[in-house]
Write a structure and sequence with these properties.
The protein has 14 helices and 13 strands. Helices cover 67% and strands 9% of the residues. The longest helix has 151 residues. It has 652 residues and is an alpha+beta fold. It comes from Aegilops tauschii subsp. strangulata. This is SMC hinge domain-containing protein.
């Protein structure tokens, strides 16, 4: 196996496609003058085969592309054709083509025209003998001299490395390390096994103890059952004796019940009279209390109304104070009126509820007192009265006392009714007075309504003006936020532009701006980048087509550019290229009409006086749908073509 042919394009000093003659299977020598590209040819071979160029950053890939006059190169490739007649490369072909293509954003391999991954290429080269662990299949410049000057120990290390001994030693050390780790793990496993065996012995002992515990527990349950059975028999016997006692007590209770029925019939008439007297007394007391409360509240209302009238007469001097005090007076009067009505209704409801509650409580108390009296009488009737005549005498005395109390209560009830009628008459007077006050309140309400209407109108007008002011504030805030966002975007775009611009060009543009400002030079229109505008989808095509021409400064004539260049040279202010409009002669390009492409110049927006400068930069370029169309148009129409993705195709 040997390298049969090398094809290079766009790599370092090789801009155009360069193909070598077929190499000899023996010894080949590359000769040439200084700067003819011998070292770059050697680097191109290493670029494909060696691991020297494996991990490339974006700037490293850009350094491999051709840099020179004319249009910049966006991609490069190196293709090596191997003679595989000895089948050293595991591919069933006598000729194998391996190509590596690199661009600013891509790095790809192709095997016989098919895209393959970097790992597949490395494995293929490993199988052919190009091992990364033994990179001595390429003898670099100065390597022989270093071998002759090596010490014996260094030369021994080199022979070990070439022979693969170092790899063996490294793998042996790794194997010994793994064996040591395995031995340590075995010791840990043995410790775990011993712990498990000890634990099993402990579990066996606990198992025997559990068997003994189960036997003893069984005996305990049998003893508990025997004890419970004896206790159950004793309880049954005791229950039988208690049932006999219960029957005897029931017989005695039946006799007592018969006696109680007789006593109830005798006392029934007395209880009715007592109940009626007690109810009348309580009702009279309740009505008296309610009437006193109403009278007190009515006096409070009258006093409050008199005070309010005096306050109104004092405060009617001014319109605003009259309005405020009239509203307060009206609300106060309404509250008092509603309060009186609600309190009157509540008093009636409470009175009825209390009467019913008192009746229920009295009934409950009388029932309990009857039961208690019957029991006391049953208990003490043998000792309270000596005979039946003494008992009747005591009852007649009790009846006389109750009749006397009843007469007194009826007189008191008559007095309370008279007082209640007086209070009702007084309430009627107060009601008439309230009605007169209501008529006055109605007049005040009319005045208040007019004032409230004017106040509402002014309030609506004020709210409308406040809403309008808020909307203006909101609009001002949104405009301010938009301006801040645009400023931030401008700063970010300026930073991105400065980062993408080469350092000497950026320094030169800054120097030009300073020189124009300091020396008052006119006729400078600015860089091409600032003078052009287009749709966002054409940005990539414009950037690739123009290249560094985007930073060329357009001036009115060559005198202006000469003055600026003199100052730049004197101050060492950087490098700038100028486009003087009086010296520009745009190429006469005949672009045919077609649906497959469109002139890039038609998609750009610029001022008419700058047209010659843009015709010089973009006049020969058209935009095509795809790369295939661009290749065909470039060959047939002698035009520079480019796709929207930025893939260029130049005319030959």
């Amino acid at each position: 196996m040997y390298i049969k042919k090398v094809i290079i394009e766009g790599f370092k000093s090789y801009r155009e496609e360069t193909s070598t003659e077929p190499f000899s299977p023996k010894v080949n020598v590359v000769v040439g003058a200084n700067g003819s590209g011998k070292s770059n040819f050697f680097h191109a071979i290493r670029f494909v085969l060696s691991d020297m160029f494996q991990n490339l950053r974006s700037e490293d890939r850009g350094a491999l592309l051709h840099e020179g006059a004319g249009h910049s190169v966006v991609s490069a490739f190196v293709e090596i054709i191997f003679d595989n007649s000895d089948n050293r490369i595991p591919v069933d072909k006598e000729e194998v083509r391996l190509r590596r293509t690199v661009a600013s954003k891509k790095d790809e391999y192709y095997l016989d025209g098919k895209h393959v991954s970097k790992t597949e290429v490395m494995n293929l080269l490993e199988s052919a003998g190009f091992s990364r662990s033994n990179p001595y299949y390429v003898v670099q410049q100065g390597k022989i001299a270093s071998l002759t000057l090596m010490k014996d120990s260094e030369r021994l290390d080199l022979l070990k490395e070439i022979g693969g001994t170092r790899v063996y030693e490294d793998r042996r050390r790794e194997s010994l390390k793994i064996m040591q780790e395995t031995a340590n793990k075995r010791k840990q496993i043995d410790q775990v096994v011993r712990y498990l065996e000890e634990r099993l012995r402990e579990l066996d002992e606990e198992k025997e103890e559990l068997k003994k515990y189960q036997q003893l527990d069984k005996q305990r349950r049998s003893l508990e059952y025997t004890i419970l059975d004896h206790e159950l028999n004793d309880a049954r016997n005791e229950l039988a004796s208690m049932d006999d006692n219960r029957r005897q007590i029931s017989e005695r209770m039946s006799q007592a019940d018969n006696e109680v029925v007789e006593l109830r019939e005798r006392v029934k008439s007395l209880e009715k009279e007592i109940k009626a007297s007690t109810k009348g007394i309580n009702e009279t007391k309740s009505e008296k209390g309610d009437a006193e409360k109403k009278r007190t509240e009515a006096l409070k209302v009258v006093s409050q109304i008199e005070l309010d009238l005096r306050d109104l007469k004092d405060r009617i001097s001014s319109e605003k104070r009259a309005k405020d005090e009239a509203v307060r007076e009206l609300n106060s009067m309404r509250k008092e009126s509603e309060k009186s009505k609600s309190e009157l209704a509540q008093i009636s409801k409470v009175h009825a509820a209390k009467l019913k509650e008192e009746e229920d409580i009295s009934k409950s108390i009388m029932d309990r007192e009857k039961r208690l009296s019957i029991l006391y009488q049953k208990q003490g009737r043998a000792t309270q009265f000596k005979n039946e005549a003494a008992r009747d005498e005591w009852l007649r005395k009790e009846i006389h006392d109750l009749e006397r109390v009843l007469l007194s209560n009826r007189k008191q009830e008559s007095l309370l009714q008279d007082e209640s009628q007086k209070l009702k008459d007084e309430i009627n007077k107060l009601t008439n007075h309230i009605e007169s006050r209501r008529s006055e309140s109605s007049k005040l309400e009319a005045v208040l309504a007019d004032k409230q209407k004017n106040h509402n109108d002014f309030t609506k007008q004020k709210n409308a003006l406040q809403d309008e002011r808020k909307s203006f504030w909101k609009e001002e805030n949104s405009v301010t936020a938009e301006i801040d966002r645009l400023k931030e975007d401008l700063v970010k775009a300026q930073k991105s532009l400065d980062h993408a611009t080469p350092g000497d060009i950026r320094r030169g543009l800054n120097s030009v701006s300073r020189i124009i400002r300091d020396h008052g030079i006119g006729g400078v229109f600015g860089p091409v980048l600032e003078l052009v505008d287009c749709e966002e989808k054409f940005f990539t095509a414009v950037e690739v087509t123009a290249g560094n021409s985007l930073f060329h400064v357009v001036v009115e004539n060559d005198d202006i550019s000469t003055r600026i260049i003199q100052v730049l040279t004197r101050e060492k202010g950087g490098r700038v290229t100028f486009i003087p409009l009086n010296r520009v002669h745009a190429p006469n390009v005949n672009v045919p009409q077609s649906s497959d492409f469109v002139p890039l110049l038609k998609k750009l927006k610029f001022r008419a006086e700058h047209r010659r400068a843009f015709e010089q930069v973009f006049g020969r370029t058209v935009i095509c749908r795809d790369l295939e169309t661009a290749t065909r148009v470039a060959r047939s129409n002698s035009l520079d073509c480019i796709t929207l993705d930025g893939n260029p195709e130049f005319c030959s």
